[in-house]
Amino acid sequence: MNACCHQSGAKSLSVAGWIVPAVLLALMPKCPACLAAYIAAGTGLGLSLSTAAHLQTSLLILCASSLSYLVVKLLLTFIFKAKNEKHPRGVSHIPASIGTVSARERPSR
């Protein structure tokens, strides 16, 4: 496999990291009874309302924290890239005009 295949796989995984929690939050039912009914219809497992309420709260916290982590990670990546583009390694970021003083700007003694 070449580097291109690895990059596309990593990109797909990154996109899935954003899509899965967002879709889960969008499709999550508002009431625990509906969540219990969806789980029962999809898996055949019956849940009590208190278990469904705890599951709903846990899923909301998990999705929100996962999206928060991804936002912070994205912001740090942008900040790091912007910092490296402004000051490439080995190049001074001090303008040349600061180091030179013209005869008019020199203080008289």
Sum up the structure in keywords.
single chain; 109 residues; mainly alpha; 4 helices; elongated
Protein model, in words:
There is one protein chain. The protein has 109 residues and is mainly α. The protein has a domain of 70 residues. It has four helices and no strands. Helix 1 crosses helix 3 and helix 2 crosses helix 3. It is elongated. The N and C termini lie far apart (71 Å). The mean pLDDT is 79.
Describe the secondary-structure layout.
Layout: H1 3-27, H2 32-43, H3 49-86, H4 96-99
Helix pairs in contact: 1-3, 2-3
Spans of at least 5 consecutive residues with low confidence: none
* Fraction of residues in β-strands: under 5%
Bulk shape: elongated
Helix content: over 70%
Q: How many helices?
A: 4
- What about the largest sheet? none
Rg (C-alpha, Å): 27 Å
Total number of strands: 0
Given helix and strand content, the structural type is: mainly alpha
Helix/strand order, N-terminal first: HHHH
What is the straight-line distance between the termini?
Answer: 71 Å
- Name the average pLDDT: 79
In short:
The protein has helices at 3-27, 32-43, 49-86, 96-99.
